[in-house]
Amino acid sequence: MTTIFTCKDQFDDMMTCIYDAWASRLGHSNIRLKAEPVGNLELFCEYRHVDSDPEKTASVIRSIQKKISPYAYSMIYKAAMSDQEDKLDAIYRFVVAGFHYGASVTDYLQEPVVMRIFELSRKVANEAHYHREFIRFANMEHRILVSHIEPKANVLTLVAPHFADRLPSENWMIIDDTRNLAIVHPADCDYYLTDLSQKEMDRLSQKTNDPFVELWKGFFENIGIKERRNPKCQRNMLPLWYRKHMPEFH
Amino acid sequence: METAACKMTLQEKLNILADAAKYDVACTSSGSSRRGKKGYLGNAVSSGICHSFSSDGRCISLLKILFTNECIFDCKYCLNRSSNDQPRATFTPEEVCTLVTEFYRRNYIEGLFLSSGIMKSPTYTMEQMYQAVYLLRTKYKFNGYIHVKAIPGAPEELIARMGYLADRMSVNIELPTTEGLSKLAPHKKPENLVKPLRQIQDGITSHRLAIGKDPQMERSNSSKYLPHTIFRENPYRRLPSGSDPVSVHLPASARCQAHFVPAGQSTQMIIGATGENDLQLLSTTQKLYQMYDLKRVFFSAYVPLNEDALLPAIGTAPPLLREHRLYQADWLLRYYGFHAEELLSPERPNFNILLDPKCDWALRHLEYFPVEINRASYADLLRVPGIGTKSAGRIVKSRRGGLLDFQHLKKIGVVLKRAKYFITCNGKMMHRIPIKEDFITRQLIRTDSKKNWEIEHPQTYRQLSLFDDFHFQSEITMEDSHKSILGQL
């Protein structure tokens, strides 16, 4: 019989889940891990929900960084932000392999478990990079910059350090519309992650009347060379689903 | 004229001067890495960041504008030449600064790309540009990326001062040969173009030596494993650099604060306006990299804009595939350790239209193949078509942990449809493939023909219709399609 450990889709919970799954001593091949929502239940499986525990979380993170490498930890973190169903199990298998091979495990792409983590983290890192490029801030009252995104992976914490370094003395926030989460950065202070209520979301999605949006649209129109028009290349570089919140495409 | 210019809105100016700048290709924001500072706006990321892609599929990274298009020069190929009847505009330095900072805050751009037509004199133009950039760095506290064109003929002191404010500077060579230049750009003297190139290079070298770095600019990280790059085997090198560039770390207090053109310099050549062949273009490119230690050489497929007996007629399609082949070759020079003489020869001075330069080279050198994936050196792996710097690096690292097979290669990112003719894994090829030039050529041409056609014809398909006149020049807009649905046409 297989035991399936489940937990909330949050990084801390996932790390605790890995701890408990390991400590259960049921054998790696007899267990699976899954982030919630669980979806369809399987027959002949026992489900165990795990709640986050700061000590266990810290201990897992510490062992990954020490016994594998900080680079492996960053791969695991990115993979944990993914929207793929098998991510938590993939992380667990990778950690098992990592404790065996040590720091060089991240190079061994011929191992299926390493390849999977590599793919997951690359996908999330690419999406985060796209958002660094294509996030657009709207200038609200009192020079507050507000941006809305609808990412597939949970990229907020991956893009925030970039903007904190870039706009240290501006008030800005990036809102994840699908998860109702936001990064808030008051000028000259540290940023933080917070949940938003529906009322706050509505207030922050108001349209603004910004002259620079029109200037930008004019620039965008004029910078393209008509003799070289190539919408297919444009779609390749900037897929359509990113354009929803980009003013130059509306 | 003066009053008309004053009444122009910022929007009109921006439209005119962005339109005038669009033929400049160098819109990269790479090569500079700088952390943000409290109270300042912006940072610089070494890989560069593209913020949007225009309708022609080119990246928009910087606010690419001319300071003015009121040019006194009359270069034959240029839209802004003085003999053309064009709407003209000039920014004020303050306007440039507001646009840059406000766009930057909204994450529209990565910084400023400032070029200019020549108004009054090169010196006056450069002064105006300097003022804009100086204000941007001081009053507006802008810490992002700035790329400035050095105006040939401007005084050395101005160019040197600009170098301390900008991340990258560039001088456009425009045409690869002096004959072409004297024919098409009679106001531009070759020695005037080369002088600022040399001056900026000297500035960069002395700054690098002063902060304890190797006099040569850094190249891609992987190129240190390549023994024969054009940068190592450089007959034009003026200062010796160690075979392994060693940086001396100075204490922070000893380092000078202002950096001089940290992202290096670049240049641009027009292709297809005059009769140069690819070998001339690529040799010039290689020479520029070696003599002036440029970071990039850009190519721009010539779009005919002016009626002139010396130039291709208006309506001639820009040579996009040729431009693509040159960029592919440029990458082979900078990242793959190829030399221009290896890719082209006086007997075959132009690139093969049907095959990319690396496949073309491999087919003429089948004696090097097949390459054994599990044993070949990094440099040999890079010479295989279908293996790039990333996949070669992954192969070299992962094979320490065990043997690699074709399934692994596919996941690692090797393009097997090209590579399979040139490699073995554990002594076996993927299929039974004869290593014969004509067989492999035939196979590879079939793989690439569709892609090549698309590069040359980027905007072709259109629904056949009874009512459209196919010689109509105007484009079909959104409104037209609405009208046609509503039956108003």
UniProtKB/TrEMBL annotation, chain A:
Domain of life the protein comes from: Bacteria
Species the sequence originates in: Anaerostipes butyraticus
InterPro entries given in the database record: DNA_repair_put, DUF4130
Pfam families, per the entry: DUF4130 (PF13566)
Residue span, DUF4130 domain: 86-248
Protein's name according to its UniProt entry: DUF4130 domain-containing protein
Automatic annotation (TrEMBL), chain B:
InterPro entries: Aldolase_TIM (IPR013785), DNA_rSAM_put (IPR023874), Endo/Exo/Phosphatase_dom_1 (IPR051675), rSAM (IPR007197), rSAM_sf (IPR058240), RuvA_2-like (IPR010994)
Record bears the keyword Metal-binding: yes
Molecular-function GO terms, alphabetical: catalytic activity; iron-sulfur cluster binding; metal ion binding
Pfam families, A to Z: Fer4_12, HHH_3
Record keywords, A-Z: Iron, Iron-sulfur, Metal-binding, S-adenosyl-L-methionine
SUPFAM superfamilies found in the cross-reference section: Radical SAM enzymes, RuvA domain 2-like
CDD domains, sorted: Radical_SAM
Protein name (Swiss-Prot/TrEMBL): DNA modification/repair radical SAM protein
Lineage per the UniProt record: Bacteria, Bacillati, Bacillota, Clostridia, Lachnospirales
